[in-house]
């Protein structure tokens, strides 16, 4: 028999799932539209049927657990709670519902925590005990590992670094507050910074020819690669705020590395180089030069499924 | 035989030490001037002789460990490193030096971590697994406990919340940077806020009759208790920044409680009430109303010795 874990990534639009072996190899995968199942029981039925089908495809497979990354997920309770981007309202006892269909250990946490677990078990943090993963996409998610353990906190919602205030009185955030880290250091934050710069400085830029609603971090990174002045300045400004938020995180837990993952991180050295420079110049003296800024070690297309599966593999290794 | 632990508090001026039993009772104590021993070997000789004398005073006592709180202490290495307020320069291998004289487990960490351990083992955090202690004195120290374990981080220097930047470009900090949490939310920070307010607003205040070099947080708290307008405003402003820094810490580790200790915390409800109000109004939605703001449960005069001893009692309980 070959032990396999199901990794599940529940997004607002798509749900992807796959079987992952102990080494992190994705053996098979499938997906469906989350939005096709506005009722949670139908969703659970579709997901568990999908996992059973993948498992049945090979007589050698023995399913030993299901790991799930989902928005607004609570690790302690195995729930999804008041997720604004999902159809299921209130508190959804997802882990319990799934266990009634497939009786194996089920773990639920948010996608950034799953990403961090993926880095620890299969990725660039394999030998690390203290690190932080920042997922720089539409928002900014974070997974924090301290002394080899994921930080869930008293509520189960720990690791919301996207909602540190980095600019008091600054940009509006989806959470209803102002100046949150994710309003600046994310793919959408980069777009906002370009718009801000277009209003403030006179430099010519090809980005001025794109409707602001069509601007993306990818287009900005491409323009920056061609030395477009507004794109370059926006990247540097984003790196500065990213560095600022990273330093405020470093004084908390003194990690060995900060690992950057997701849309904005794909800008590569254009983002990493000025971020490292900011840290070198501004980090608190006791932590100076003690923290690596690293790109993720997990392929982006497989990251969510591998990370979710890692939640279970980590438990089994204990 | 009665097992006892020596708790040691090394300060820039005085070193205090005592024997503490499993329940946190300080059985005997003594102290000497740290400044009398500019050579580390002489200091270690004096300290170990002092501990031996206390232990020998009762035939029933069996010394099972020595816990030490000291500035710029590194838990992983058992060292004091480049402490600006101590005479011993460079890296001092304190734990090793003491173990050569008294062969028991020796643990060294900074005083705020010792305070946090004291709260967990003997104080208000006895039943908590996730909390943060802020020591609001000359500076702002912090001890962070996550899932029942002290956070030391990759370097051993974790928990330096006093050096989060809370006001970008703000007040000068002793660390050479600007706008650090401890430049505002500490006893000295409160004094600075009073001076700032005296320059900005026209309100009458008895504090204007005191030379600024003689202002203390105690005098300001006394004036605030008598409704002195500048003192009250300074207290509220300090509570706001304290609340701001606390929220930025909450999104990190989602603690059950923030415990306030030290000079500024002695202002009591004049500080606690506006801090709680700020949190109620400004905390991130997922953490709202999940965090208690509590005064320390350890008597201030015994706190340092009890906290240092708790470092060892905690290890022995494992």
What does this structure look like?
The structure is a homodimer of 318-residue chains. Chain A has 318 residues and is an alpha/beta fold. Chain A folds into 2 domains: 2-119 and 300-317, 2-Layer Sandwich (Nucleotidyltransferase, domain 5), CATH 3.30.420.40; 127-295, Nucleotidyltransferase, domain 5, CATH 3.30.420.40. Helices cover 36% and strands 21% of the residues of chain A. The first copy, chain A, has 8 helices and 13 strands. The first copy, chain A, has helices at 40-56, 94-101, 111-121, 187-200, 217-225, 229-253, 269-282, 300-317; strands spanning 2-10, 14-20, 26-33, 61-69, 73-74, 79-81, 91-92, 106-109, 131-136, 140-146, 149-150, 257-261, 292-295. In chain A, the strands form 3 sheets. Chain A has a 5-stranded mixed beta sheet, sandwiched between helices. A 5-stranded mixed beta sheet of chain A has the order 11-10-9-12-13, with helices on both faces. Chain A has a 3-stranded antiparallel beta sheet with strand order 5-6-7. In chain A, helix 3 (111-121) crosses helix 8. The longest helix of chain A is centred in the C-terminal third of the chain and has 25 residues, at 229-253. Chain A is globular, with a radius of gyration of 20 Å. The first copy, chain A, starts with a strand and ends with a helix. The model of chain A has no long low-confidence stretch (mean pLDDT 96). At the A-B interface, helix 6 of A face helix 6 of B.
